Amino acid sequence: MAIKYHDGDLPDGLKLGNIIAVDTEAMGLELHRDQLCVVQLSDGSGDEHVVKLNRQTFDCPNLKKLMSAPDILKIFHFARFDVAMMKKWLGIECAPIFCTKIASKLVRTYTDRHGLKDVTRELVGADMSKAQQSSDWGADELSDAQLAYAASDVLYLHEIREKLIVMLEREGRMELAQACFDFLPKRAELDLAGWPETDIFAHS
Length: 204
Description:
By secondary structure, the protein is of the alpha/beta class. The protein has helices at residues 61-68, 79-90, 100-107, 116-124, 144-155, 157-170, 174-193, and strands spanning 2-7, 19-26, 36-42, 47-52, 73-76, 97-99.
């Protein structure tokens, strides 16, 4: 695994293929309060790219173009948060999407453990450390431990997606999963507009 650090934006001309794994790190989990700090990506080949954003300008045209490209599939785990963060702070709509957390909930109905660490352990056989999850991602310099953590969050997503697709097709739930993925940008809009935990389909 080679971790490639980028200050502010991805370099010009970088090609990552038509399926990329993506994750984000922020100052916290409150969309309106906590700024987006880092976006990490992987093309599945073993190299991970970690972009530390300029939080004064969020000027990152290459990253924005990649994240909004309609012909590039973005794999997330809990895409709802990442997509909302990028819409809020980068001003883009991120699509198309495959969310491994949604897929896990649709097919791994024998468990209530759908966090990335648990999904990775079962489907890939790898253990992940989450020790840096709550660290200061707004620091002027990211530590080696933070970079390693950020990279690990996208390292296995391609393989996890392939395993989950097999399970979704086996259980006849691929079409349902795709409908959920397609709705995610609108779910992010609802979060940003003030309906974060409201079930708009509920009777009450």
